Amino acid sequence: AVDASVVSLNPGTDQFQALVILYDVTYLRRIEQMQMDFVGNVSHELKTPVTSITGFAETLLNGAKDNPETLTQFLQIIYDESRRLTQLITDILALSRSESGTTHVRSFNVLELVNQTLGSLDQTVQAKKLQVTVTVDPNLTLKSDSVKVSQIVRNLLNNAVFYNRDGGQVTVHAEMLAGQFRLSVQDTGIGIETDEQQRIFERFYRVDKARSRNNGGTGLGLAIVAELVRSLDGSVSVSSQLGVGTTFTVTLPLSD
Ligand code: ADP
Predict the structure, then answer these.
(1) How far is Cα 231 from Cα 152, in angstroms, rounded to an integer?
(2) ipTM above 0.95, yes or no
(3) Which of 26, 65, 94, 175 can bridge 60 by disulfide, Cβ–Cβ 3.0-4.6 Å?
(4) 222-243: pLDDT as tens digits
(5) Which residues approach ligand 1 with their CB closer than 6 A?
């Protein structure tokens, strides 16, 4: 679709000169539609935990609090839903930051960055008795936006841990290959069906809503990864086998 704007250059004079601006609006409309869909999705996703918190708090106030068992059970739900709300807000902010132009480009040690991220997952790694292997040259440095790369690694590692089986493995590998930086996160988890593999990068998309929700997932982790990778002119791919495991690979161009 093409829109035309006519601007009179000499308003109020006999002389009529006009500048005709033609531009393709299909692209703009699509962006507008995507933004509207996103706002709709965000509102829906935020409303769900809020509705639940309000409902359970109201029931408690109306007398259910007098039963100690119900009190504990409902407070737990309110607590879980509040945490979920916090996670959603954190992820939505991360997504909006990933679209902003702010950059933190510096040279950093890749192994240090991976180890820092792993540290924050220590509890879950231990609880699930996972074996984590990091194969990164201790001298490997990358010049890139460290905040963005760190968020990419964090989201991929979070998933590799959450969707893993007890006693499973997580392998993080990074190297320079053919003039590019390549990082892969491999797990021995539940895997992702071929049909789902393209959709998982969509905002709010979750393969199994019920299960993902129990894990505190928001469906935004991979959308954030995709957006960050795109902003760094890189690419992200997934290869997975159901019941065997999944590998995400991120490739970034080297900046001078
Ligand atoms: P979530 O917050 O639900 O984890 P993500 O955007 O990070 O959202 O992932 C989208 C969906 O992709 C998840 O709900 C999950 O079903 C699937 N997924 C992501 N990473 C993995 C993985 N490593 N193994 C299996 N499934 C995964």
Answers:
(1) 12
(2) yes
(3) 65
(4) 999 999 999 999 999 999 999 9
(5) 159-160, 163, 187, 189-192, 200, 205-208, 212, 217-223, 246
